[in-house]
């Protein structure tokens, strides 16, 4: 199984070639919807890695794809967990993370 370098979902070798162009299209659509300061440069598909013997190094290729996917993730400003960019805003609206809770406690202290 190979992780998609964009969304990180796992695919078989055959289906990832079908998925990746679709995923990139979706990525572009989502990116265009973001306000300009939040838009990101298009991620480049990592090169296929080869072993010293010139064979495809599946493990290294999988790792490169996975790392590329991780770079796509955006941390929540409240709890610091990472999300796909189109999901982070939805999450932040409902996030009750640690920092948020501290801020709430702080506010309560001031009001008392
Ligand atoms: Zn994908
Ligand atoms: Zn959060």
From TrEMBL:
Instruction: Supply the alphabetized keyword list.
Output: Metal-binding, Repeat, Zinc, Zinc-finger
Q: What superkingdom heads the lineage?
A: Eukaryota
Q: Among its keywords, does the record have Magnesium? A: no
An example molecular function term from Gene Ontology annotations: zinc ion binding
Q: Cite the InterPro entries for this sequence.
A: ZC2HC1A/B-like, Znf_C2HC_C3H
Q: What PROSITE patterns does its record include?
A: ZF_C2HC_C3H
C2HC/C3H-type domain span: 1-29, 72-101
> Which residue ranges does the record annotate as region Disordered?
32-52
Which Pfam families does the UniProt record give?
zf-C2HC_2
- The answer to whether UniProt assigns keyword Iron-sulfur to this entry is no
Q: What is this protein called?
A: C2HC/C3H-type domain-containing protein
